[in-house]
Structure formats: structure tokens, C-alpha cells
Design goal:
Layout (H helix, E strand, L loop, with lengths): L1 H16 L10 H23 L5 H4 L3 H24 L13 H20 L11 H21 L7 H23 L5 H21 L1 H4 L3
Helix pairs in contact: 2-4, 2-6, 2-7, 4-5, 4-7, 6-7, 6-8, 7-8
């Protein structure tokens, strides 16, 4: 019995010797704040360089346009917050209901887009290179890098879901920036030039999700 007791104590001691101090991750809200500040500052700088759309003084008084921007910002921020919670394996004890918020907002945005297709005059969708493609890449560069840098510091157990949230946060923010710089309101242009680049970005990130956000 004494020998067994000593063996147990030795085992505990050996395990204790291997313990290292672990730095607790900040609260998800605190992890999201730096990304939001960096992304917002970057967007303001890029927009000031590219220039606002020529009819911004008219559009800013358009309730539909303002609603669209607020809707897109809500998707971006809620998705970024979900990504921060997903960094923790158990999501800090939160249920997955928080994921439903950006997903529901995205679903509403898609339905509104379909409705605009049904009631609007649709021009031919031109998939040739357009300057909006380049602007989309510029707008997404720093926000995408920043949120990836924050995400890989965690240990998510939902890599594909995190990929979706990160894509939504970056894509929605970039789309909002494009709406402020591009003067076109044609739904065909918005779909092909503003949405498709971020859709492709999301597909690529999702495909690489398990490799990017692995333990």
C-alpha cells in the first residue's frame, strides 16, 4: 500500500512538473474590437483614396440605401463576433444560437436581392474584368489578414463554420465599402462585380478551413 501510495504521489509530481502557465484568451468582445478598429480605419483610408461615389449626397438621404448599409454592417459585426466565440472549443459555454444571427441576416439580404431581381430591370451580367474586382481585393486584404491572425490564435472545433463567419465578416464589410465607392445600383452589376469576388473568397477559405484553423 505504501509503495502504491508513493507511486501515485510520484506520478502526480511528474505530471505537475510538466505543467506550464497558460495565458487565458481575452473575452470575445475584446478580441473583436481590435479587428473592428483596424478594419474600419483601413476602409476609411482606402475609400478616401478611391473616392466616394459621385451621387453620395443623394444616396445618403435614401432610406433604402442607408438601410442596406446598416444591414450589411450588422452581418459583418455579428459574424466577426461569432468567429471570436468559435475560437474557443466550447464557445465559452454559449449555445450555437448566436450563429443564427448573421445567418438570418444573410438570408434576409439574399431574399431582398432576389426580390430586386424580380422587380428590377436586369441588364446582361458581364463577367469581364472590372475595376470593382480590384477594389474588392483591396478592401478585403487587411481585414481578411487581421481576422485570420486573430482566429488562428484560438482552438476552434468548427473550422468550416469559422471559415463561413470570417468570410461573412470580411465580405460584408467589403461590399459595404464598394457600395460607398461604386455609383452603380444595378442588381446585375452588384451581383457579378460586388458579391462574386467575396463569394469566391469564402469558397477558398472554406476549402482550406481545416488546414488554417487546426489545433
Amino acid at each position: 500500500m505504501i509503495k502504491e501510495k508513493q507511486s501515485a504521489e510520484e506520478l502526480i509530481a511528474s505530471l505537475s512538473d510538466e505543467l506550464v502557465k497558460v495565458k487565458v484568451m481575452p473575452h470575445p468582445l475584446l478580441r473583436t474590437l481590435p479587428w473592428f478598429l483596424i478594419a474600419t480605419a483601413y476602409m476609411v483610408i482606402v475609400i478616401s483614396i478611391i473616392g466616394l461615389r459621385t451621387d453620395i449626397d443623394v444616396k445618403i438621404n435614401d432610406n433604402g440605401f442607408v438601410y442596406e448599409l446598416l444591414h450589411i454592417f450588422a452581418i459583418s459585426i455579428s459574424a466577426a463576433l461569432c468567429s471570436s466565440w468559435l475560437c474557443v472549443p466550447d464557445m465559452r459555454g454559449r449555445s450555437k444560437w448566436i450563429i443564427a444571427i448573421p445567418v438570418a441576416l444573410l438570408a434576409i439580404f439574399i431574399l431582398e436581392g432576389i426580390n430586386r431581381f424580380n422587380i428590377g430591370i436586369i441588364h446582361n451580367i458581364n463577367m469581364s474584368w472590372h475595376h470593382c474586382y480590384g477594389d474588392a481585393l483591396v478592401f478585403s486584404a487587411v481585414p481578411a489578414f487581421a481576422i485570420l491572425a486573430i482566429s488562428i490564435k484560438g482552438n476552434t472545433t468548427h473550422p468550416y463554420l469559422m471559415s463561413l463567419m470570417n468570410s461573412l465578416s470580411v465580405g460584408a464589410l467589403g461590399y459595404a465599402a464598394l457600395r460607398l465607392t461604386c455609383s452603380s445600383d444595378d442588381i446585375a452589376h452588384l451581383s457579378s462585380m460586388h458579391i462574386i469576388p467575396y463569394l469566391l473568397f469564402g469558397i477558398i477559405i472554406a476549402a482550406l478551413g481545416r488546414n488554417i484553423y487546426r489545433w
